[in-house]
Write a structure and sequence with these properties.
With 395 residues, the protein is α+β, with helices and mostly antiparallel strands. It is built from nine helices and 24 strands. Strand 15 and strand 16 form a beta hairpin.
C-alpha cells in the first residue's frame, strides 16, 4: 500500500465502473497488481474506486475483456496540478518571478552592523569594510570568504586586536575586540578652587591643596575655597587643588500655571493603511482616498518574512490612524500650585547639576488671576560650588 503522499505525487483518479462483469474486472485488476483502493459498491453492477493514473491507462484491455465501462469522476495529484497551471501562463510567470525575486533579494546584503566598538568610531569601521566590498546592496556571492574579510579588516584597523565577520541572513555583523590601552591621566596645571556662586558652605573635602573655608561660612562668588599654594614665603609649593565644596544657594523662581489643561481624547474613528515593504521602501496597497484627520495619532505594526534565523528584506506594514480631539479639563488651584513647584524644581536641577538637592522653599507671593496661578518662590538648593582658577606665575 503506497502512502498518500506518493499517490498524490504520481497522480490518481476516482472512477465509477459499470457493467455485469464488475467482479471479474476487479479480480483481474488485483491479480495484475493494479494500485486500486477504496473499492465500494454504489448499486447493482456499479462501483467506485481510486487508482493511479498509470494503472488507469492499463485498464482498457480489461474493460474490453469484461464488457465494463469506466467514468472518471475526479482527478488528484501533482500531474493534474501542473496541467492546470499550464492553462494559467501569467499566473505561473508571476509565481516564478516572485520566487526569483525572493531569491535575489535574499542574496544581497541589506544591512551592515558593527558590535563591540567603544572608542573606535563606527563610521571608521564601516569605511574600512566598504573598501573590502562589505556594504548594503552588495551581492553576497561577490564577497570574499569570511576569514579573509576578517583578516583584511584587521590589517586596515590596527587599533583592534580581533575582528570577526558573520553572515546572518541578509545582514553582515562585524564583531570588534579593541586593543587595551593604558589609562592616560589628565595633566593638571596649578590652580585654586574658587566659589562659582555666593553660598553658605555646608561641606568641605580637600584631597590636594589647602582648605580656606569651613562649614556654615558665607562665601561670595570668586572667593578661594581650596588654595593651590602650600607652605610659606620661604618654603612654598604650587599644586593643582583638588576636592569638593558644597553649599546652599538661593534661587528665586516666578511660576505661572494655567487652571485649564488640555487632554487628548480618542474619538473612536479609525482607518488603516496597508503597505508591502521591500528593503527600505514601502508600497501602499490599501487606504487610498482617506485623508488624515485634523488631529490624529498613528500606530505602525511591521512584520518581516523569515526562515529560522534568516530575515528576508520583504514584509508588510500596517498603519493605524486614529482621530483625536483636545478637551479642556479644569485644574484645582492646589494641583496647579504643586505642578508649578515641581516644574520649577526640575528647571533648577537641570542647571544646578546632577548632585544638587533641594533643602527647602518659601512662597514669597501667590495670586490667582485670569485663569492662572502666579507664584514667586525662593528655593534653597545644596550643590557643588567649586570652579577652577589657574594660578598665575609669580602669584
Amino acid at each position: 500500500m503506497q502512502p498518500q503522499f506518493v499517490r498524490s505525487l504520481r497522480g490518481y483518479v476516482a472512477v465509477t465502473i459499470r457493467g455485469d462483469g464488475l467482479e471479474p474486472l476487479l479480480n483481474l485488476a488485483v491479480s495484475q497488481r493494479f494500485s486500486i483502493w477504496e473499492i465500494r459498491r454504489t448499486g447493482s453492477g456499479q462501483a467506485r474506486a481510486k487508482l493511479l493514473v498509470r494503472d488507469f491507462f492499463r485498464l482498457r484491455p480489461l474493460l474490453k475483456q469484461t464488457g465494463c465501462r469506466v467514468h472518471v469522476e475526479t482527478r488528484h495529484g501533482f500531474p493534474f496540478f501542473l496541467g492546470r497551471l499550464g492553462k494559467r501562463k501569467f499566473f505561473v510567470a508571476g509565481l516564478v518571478g516572485f520566487f526569483i525575486g525572493i531569491y535575489l533579494l535574499s542574496s544581497m546584503v541589506w544591512q551592515v552592523k558593527v558590535e563591540g566598538n567603544d572608542t573606535i568610531p563606527t563610521y571608521e569601521i564601516l569605511r574600512a569594510a566598504r573598501e573590502q566590498g562589505i556594504k548594503p546592496f552588495q551581492w553576497k556571492f561577490r564577497l570574499k570568504p569570511l576569514d579573509e574579510l576578517a583578516r583584511d579588516l584587521n590589517h586596515s584597523l590596527p587599533e583592534v586586536s580581533w575582528i570577526g565577520v558573520e553572515k546572518q541572513g541578509t545582514r553582515i555583523v562585524i564583531k570588534v575586540v579593541e586593543s587595551s590601552r593604558p589609562e592616560q591621566r589628565e595633566l593638571l596645571s596649578p590652580r585654586h578652587l574658587v566659589a562659582r556662586k555666593s553660598a553658605v558652605v555646608t561641606q568641605v573635602q580637600s584631597t590636594k591643596g589647602k582648605p580656606m573655608v569651613e562649614p556654615n561660612r558665607y562665601v561670595k562668588k570668586g572667593d578661594v575655597l581650596i588654595s593651590g599654594i602650600l607652605g610659606n614665603e620661604t618654603n612654598r609649593q604650587v599644586v593643582a587643588a583638588e576636592g569638593t565644596v558644597r553649599g546652599i544657594i538661593w534661587y528665586e523662581s516666578r511660576i505661572e500655571v494655567p487652571l485649564i489643561r488640555q487632554h487628548k481624547v480618542y474619538t473612536g474613528e479609525v482607518f488603516k493603511r496597508f503597505y508591502l515593504v521591500f528593503g527600505g521602501r514601502a508600497l501602499q496597497i490599501t487606504g487610498y482616498g482617506k485623508t488624515d484627520y485634523e488631529a490624529s495619532d498613528k500606530e505602525e505594526s511591521r512584520k518581516t518574512l523569515g526562515w529560522r534565523n534568516y530575515m528576508l528584506p520583504v514584509g508588510w506594514l500596517t498603519e493605524k490612524v486614529m482621530e483625536v480631539r483636545q478637551e479642556d479639563v479644569p485644574v484645582e488651584p492646589e494641583a496647579a500650585r504643586a505642578a508649578g513647584l515641581e516644574r520649577a524644581k526640575a528647571d533648577i536641577l537641570m542647571n544646578a547639576g546632577k548632585d544638587a538637592k533641594f533643602v527647602s522653599y518659601n512662597v514669597l507671593q501667590e495670586k490667582t488671576d485670569n485663569g492662572k496661578v502666579y507664584m514667586n518662590v525662593l528655593f534653597q538648593v545644596e550643590e557643588t560650588i567649586t570652579e577652577e582658577l589657574a594660578i598665575v606665575q609669580g602669584e
